[in-house]
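Reopening this ticket.

The earlier resolution said the output was attached, but the attachment link was broken on my side. Pasting everything inline this time so it's all in one place.
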Amino acid sequence: MSELKVALEEAVGEGIISSGQAERLLPYLTAKNIGALSAGLGFSEPPSPDDSNPLEDTEAPRFVRGFHDVLITIGIVVLLIGLWGLANRYVSLLAIVVLAEILVRRQRLALPAVVLTVALVFWLFHTAISYVGSTPALVDNFTIAAVVVAVPFPPLLALFYWRYRVPLALALFLFSLFGLFLAAVFYVAGTVTGSSNVPVDYPIQTLMILLVTALGSFALAMRFDLSDPSRVTRRSDVAFWLHLATAPALLYSTVLLALRLELASGGTVFTNLTDALFGGYMQAVTVWAAVLVMMLIGLVIDRRAFVTAGLVSLGLATAAILRHNNAGLDKVGFLVLMIVGLVVLVIGIGWVDLRRIIVRRLPVGMQARLPALR
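Inline output:
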């Protein structure tokens, strides 16, 4: 089955067939026992349901096909860093485009495609920030500066995806639209209120806006996810990258809003998450609860990004709880590492079983739309 999936995915990547055709071909060829026929010709071992690897159908995108990709990627990183230090920034942009033409459009190398997409985003961000920093009128006005920084991302990422069809580029394009939406909201809010820095002047309202935006990003990621429950097309890769960006945004916007409301209602208002956690027992418990809910969501939708996104907060909250229970300062660090490590191992090792226990308690209609249990 895995060889058949890889073959169809490569056919989609080469433009031979569409992703929709690949989805329809997979069950058809499986029913015709094509995998077993190819094995009989000596191409591969016949697939057996009893021998399937439980890690085979995870949500990981397919971007490493061999050490050749790793070697090429190392060369890309070293070359771009060298050019960045020696030449004009536009030379680095030209290098990204030339390398993308050779390695992505022609050779279809997946890991270099990811690295070049990240390099383009870094170039865009650095260029936009440099322009804002060199313009005095923008430095003192956050609302306008945010719009200026956000505007270049959607069109250039859309062009990059149109040319090279990198799933990460599409995910970043969609995420940049949410960033542009936030910048526009802050600009309108600043115009209405007369504030030049809305997040500082209206922190609770800002966190509410961030939470709504994160929920919108999560809904979009789920749309891609649910459209490909078997995770055999590029939509699954796009959903992976969207979830990877959305999970921390959703967690921290929720946690910070809850802490801000809780502390503003009757206690000291802390300026950051670390101070809030070490400031009170209930704040740490709130963070623990939010992280556990995120992990539960991750189990239901079979996305581990929702587990890893909360590990730092989980560690800080655990340290705060131990501190309030008079744990020795010389032991707190080791206890935190042990507890967080134990949580990660329990969830990681028991992922399939835990997911089966949780998903089977959901309505049948919901179960049918989620990725299959293994």
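Reporter confirms the inline version is readable. The chain is about 75% helix and 0% strand. The chain has a mean pLDDT of 81.
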